[in-house]
Automatic annotation (TrEMBL):
Residues 108-133 are annotated as: Disordered. This is HNH endonuclease. Gene3D superfamilies: 1.10.30.50. CDD domains: HNHc. One of its GO terms (molecular function) is endonuclease activity. The keyword Hydrolase applies. Residues 151-201 form the HNH nuclease domain.
Amino acid sequence: MSFPILWALKAAPVADANERLILIALAEAARSDGTGAVLSRKQVAAVALVDVKTVQRRLGQLRQRGLIAEGDQREVIHLPEQSRPKAYDLLIPYSAFPDIGQVNAEREARGEEPLTPDMRPDLPDAPAKRRRRDLGTVLGPQRQRTGISEALRQFVYERDGYRCVRCGAPDDLTLDHIHPWVLGGVNSEENLRTLCRPCNSSKNATIEGPEVTA
Ligand SMILES: [Zn+2]
């Protein structure tokens, strides 16, 4: 495995899985120093399993935080303009390379100046996750069963003080539909409450029938 891939996989300060996959897609196409990753957004999207718009937005964010930069576009000048991909550089920090001597020898062989700590400074930590504003929407296939977004889940837990509203237990928390999901109860903050798993199961067993916990 090339070092840029390893860096993207293990060390790069990415904000989430999408960024990681996009970075891995670029790393796979990059040289040992992280430069010259020639890929179209479509190709990146195919690796990261996201749509092209997401790729575009995430590339912008990665650029803003200094993880990537636009590379030397002479690398792609020979390709047809209409479908021309972009060249990106992964700005792997100097301090991250396990064998900077080898990397710089390869750069020298290409007629490029050696990397220095100034050219490749350390990167800031990944930003903390922002709370999503789209409370209640489905985020991914694993949520299809209940359709409760991570944001809504966190909202209800926070509102209930991260405690079971029946017994006050702080652990093993689940979301409970007050009007049961199987009976058409909706995923709204009004219809959701925090129950610990024991309370949720005893409720299910005795009164309202099977319940979705997730
Ligand atoms: Zn409880």
